[in-house]
Amino acid sequence: MQVDLNGLRALVTGSTSGIGRATANKLAACGAEVLVNGRSPETVDDVVAQLRDAGGKAGPAVGDLATAEGCQLVIDQAGDLDILVNNAAWIGFKPAFEIPDEDWIRSFEVNVLAGVRLTRHYGPLMKGKGWGRIVFISSESGIQIPTEMIHYGFSKAADLAVARGFAQALKGTGVTVNSVLPGPTRTEALAGYLAGQARQSGKSEREVEEEFFRTARPTTLLNRFTTPEEIAEVITFVCSREASAISGAPIRADGGVVQAIS
Fold first, then answer.
1. Which of 53, 90, 181, 260 has most Cβ atoms within 10 angstroms of its Cβ?
2. Distance from C-alpha of 12 to C-alpha of 56, rounded to nearest angstrom
3. The dihedral of CA 51, 55, 56, 59: what is its sign?
4. Torsion sign over Cα 242, 23, 25, 125
C-alpha cells in the first residue's frame, strides 16, 4: 500500500529493530521525514543512513524512553511532529509467579509511560495545528493476557486505555489517536524466545513454533507469525491522511487470534 505522507514529520519510537524499524521504513518510503529513536547512537545512525540511502528523509532522536529525562531528550531532538508512533516496548518471558517488581515497573515505564509523556507533549501541539496522528502499538496480548508474560499483557492493556482516553481528550481537533494490535510477530525478541525454547526442550525451532500455535495461540487464523512489514502497512495507513475517520479505535492486525467482533 502506498499513501502520500509528503510534508509530514514522524517520530517512531523504538525504531531500530522489529515493527518499529519496519514502520520507519514504510513511512519514509511514503514520503514522511522520519525521526529514528533508540538508545544507541550508533544503531540509530545506522538506520538513519539506511533510510537516506533508500532515498528517504530521516534524522536521529536518541534517548532512553524509560525515563522522563530520556523522553525530553528525544523531544528536543525530534522537534515539531505531525505523526507520533508510540512503539518502544520492553518484553520479557517469565513464569507468572517469578516476575519481580522491577520487571513490572519496567513494563509500565517503557511500554506505557513513555507514550503518555510523548503524547502529553505532542497532543496539544498537534491540536494547535488542527491535524495530527498518534498511534499506540498495543498487542493482542492486551486482550488475551499471555500466561508466559503477564506483565507485558498488562502494559498493552494499559496502552488501549490510554489511547482511547487521549482520543477523547482530542475530540473534534483533527488529531486522531488509535492503537494497533499486532499478533505474534517474527521480531528479534520473538526469534530469541523461540531459540531459547528450542535449546531448553531439545526440539527444533520449527517444532517449537508449531507447538506455540497449537497450545499458546490456538485461535490463530493465519497459523503463522506475521512479519514486521505486514504490521507496518497497517500502522502506516492509520497514520495517513486517508484514515481521518478513525479515532479512538483498537485496530487489530492479530491474524485472527482474538475471538471478538471489536
1. 181
2. 15
3. positive
4. positive
Q: Give backbone dihedrals phi and psi of 79, rounded to 5 degrees, phi first.
A: 70, -150
- The set of catalytic residues is 152
| Rounded CA separation 18/197 (Å) | 20
* Beta carbons within 8 Å of 55's beta carbon, 6+ residues apart: none
Q: In this structure, what are the phi and psi dihedrals at residue 168, rounded to the nearest 5 degrees? A: -65, -40
Q: What is the pLDDT of residues 151-177, one digit of tens each?
A: 999 999 999 999 999 999 999 999 999
Which residues sit opposite 45 in a β-bridge? none
| Helix 150-169 / helix 114-129 crossing angle, nearest 10 deg | 20
- Rounded to 5 degrees, φ, ψ at 205 are -65, -35
Rounded-to-integer distance, Cα 204 and Cα 226, Å = 20
Question: What is d(CA 152, CA 92) in angstroms, rounded to the nearest whole number?
Answer: 7
Per-residue pLDDT at 262 exceeds 60:
no
Q: According to DSSP H, which parts of the chain are helical?
A: 18-29, 41-53, 68-78, 101-108, 114-129, 150-169, 188-201, 205-211, 228-239
Q: How many CB atoms lie within 10 A of CB 24?
A: 30
